[in-house]
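[Meeting: bench + compute handoff]

Bench side (C.D.) handed over the final construct sequence. Compute side (W.E.) agreed to return the predicted structure before the next meeting so the bench team could plan truncations. Sequence as handed over:
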Amino acid sequence: MGYKKILLLAAPVTIIGLVGTIITKNPLIIVVGYVISQTTIGLYDYMYPLMFSVYVPKKVRTRLFTIVMSDNLIFQTIVTFFGGKLVVWFFSIFQGLTYNQASNWSAHQDAMRTAMLANYANSYKIIIFVAIIMNLAAFFITFAFKEKPADYKTTTAEAQAKGEKKFDWSSYKKLCTKPVIVFTIYIAICQGGALLITPYLPIYLNNYLHIPRGITSTINTIQTAAMFLSYFCSPFMEKKMGTVMAVAGSTIACIPLMLIMGMGRALGTGMTLIVVVTITYFLRSGIANAGMPVQNTLQMFLVNKDLRPAFTSLTTLVIAAVGILDGLFTEFFLLKTQQGYATAYFIAAGMYLIGSLILIIYLKKDYNRLDK
């Protein structure tokens, strides 16, 4: 289909999914709408490494990934900062409270009565409606994109010029190589660890540590800003450490911070807790994401352009499968008690270490320097 058609399809499907989460109270429809919207929103993150690996020379690829991901984060930082605060603001209006009162209530959702909880939920619905408008804008912008078949697949003319066969379905067996398998295992293990904590971050901060919702959005904004700053370190890291070591090293370096977060309520109370959590999340987010542009470069380098969409799909399917297993594990075991939200950080730290060591042991020798 090409990149453009997929992106043109992603926006309206995302909108349909988002609408499904706010027009009904039926849990099944809300779950389906959420799954649909998150799936198609994820397409944007998976598409730009494919696109830029085609349009950008290898020598400046990591630099461009850094620029694009930074651009993404600038807007993510803005909406993250205002998103949580707007929820509290709308909630204060609906409930007839001051902003500070609404903010304090947001940290104790379990104490809300029916009417108050409904007003709190309605505040989120307004934010989702804003997201719908943003997806409409993305849809119209996509029409300006231009592409040709040679951008995303080997054409007959290219194959003849190289004296090769045109790409066909049998070529997918080329994905069964050591580098692809090792990288996929790394992604599965590390994403498995991340998915134990990332979806539950607001719950961990609000319900477990009892940090108000408005402050939680500030913490999320600060950690997003850390990601933005860390991306600019990626080209330097790759140059000094090599591609594989930059990816694995950044993952290993954030493990001590994960262990600190796992201490949860032992970090203090009140403003002391907020400051410690904010600094820890800032450092953890920055270190963990410093290697992401390099990771995109490495993944696209391991296969040719015909196999890049298939490789991306493979890693996506693996992450999805890991997400299902994580969900079952958290529902039926880990999150049976509130302490599970803290324990998840210790488990994730161990998974980060295992995944990074696998990447170093099996890929460092041949792929640490892609510019050889």
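W.E. noted at the follow-up: The chain has a mean pLDDT of 85. C.D. will use this when planning the next construct.
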